């Protein structure tokens, strides 16, 4: 009897422990964004968008300030008050030389950037080849006018005699008549040889 009672108590404790664990699990579950209502979700989304827009504005402002400071450091302030005609001409020449120098630098940097881009493309192709991934080539769109021009060129290359109507006459007829009119010297030679052979036979 005592053993049965102990077994029942143990089972009750086990069930109580299970219920407690299930309750803790249910309380620990969260629905959506922490169980927020649709209004709160909309408000939270609005606040996030406002914060992102503000960050973008601050970043653009910071970039503009950095650009201004860089330009002010590189370019000296221009003061033309009280300068004579000769000094103004010298200043313009100096600015022109500076501008040409900057243009050369821009050109050099553009060439360097292109070289780096081609190098990057070559390396990516090599990496893809080693991995076994092949880049799909960009397909060129065929223009309809090009195909029409190709057809016209093919027509032009055809033999124009094929388009002519046949007259029913042989085009080699004139040549045959001329050849028939000319005497054949072989027959004359054969006649002479036959005459010579017959003469000694008679004698």
Automatic annotation (TrEMBL):
InterPro entries associated with the record: Troponin, Troponin_I, Troponin_sf
Sections of the chain in a coiled coil: none
Basic and acidic residues bias spans: 7-25, 153-162
BP GO annotations: muscle contraction
Disordered as annotated region, ranges: 1-42, 153-203
Acidic residues composition-biased segments: 194-203
Pfam families listed in its UniProt record: Troponin
SUPFAM superfamilies in the cross-refs: Troponin coil-coiled subunits (SSF90250)
Any single GO CC term annotated in Swiss-Prot or TrEMBL for this entry: troponin complex
UniProt similarity note: Belongs to the troponin I family.
Protein name per the record: Troponin I
């Amino acid at each position: 009897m005592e053993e049965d009672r102990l077994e029942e108590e143990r089972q009750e404790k086990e069930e109580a422990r299970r219920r407690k664990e299930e309750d803790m699990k249910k309380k620990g579950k969260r629905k959506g964004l922490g169980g927020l209502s649709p209004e709160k979700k909309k408000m939270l989304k609005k606040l996030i968008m406002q914060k992102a827009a503000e960050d973008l504005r601050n970043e653009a402002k910071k970039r503009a300030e950095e650009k201004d400071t860089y330009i002010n450091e590189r370019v000296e302030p221009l003061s033309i008050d009280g300068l004579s005609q000769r000094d103004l001409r010298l200043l313009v020449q100096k600015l022109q030389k500076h501008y040409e120098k900057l243009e050369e630098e821009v050109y050099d940097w553009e060439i360097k950037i292109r070289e780096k881009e081609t190098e990057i493309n070559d390396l990516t192709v090599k990496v893809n080849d080693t991995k076994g991934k092949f880049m799909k080539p960009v397909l060129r769109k065929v223009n309809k006018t090009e195909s029409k021009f190709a057809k016209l060129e093919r027509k032009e290359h055809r033999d124009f005699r094929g388009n002519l109507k046949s007259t029913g006459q042989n085009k080699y007829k004139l040549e045959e008549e001329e050849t028939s009119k000319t005497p054949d010297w072989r027959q004359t030679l054969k006649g002479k040889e036959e005459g010579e052979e017959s003469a000694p036979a008679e004698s």
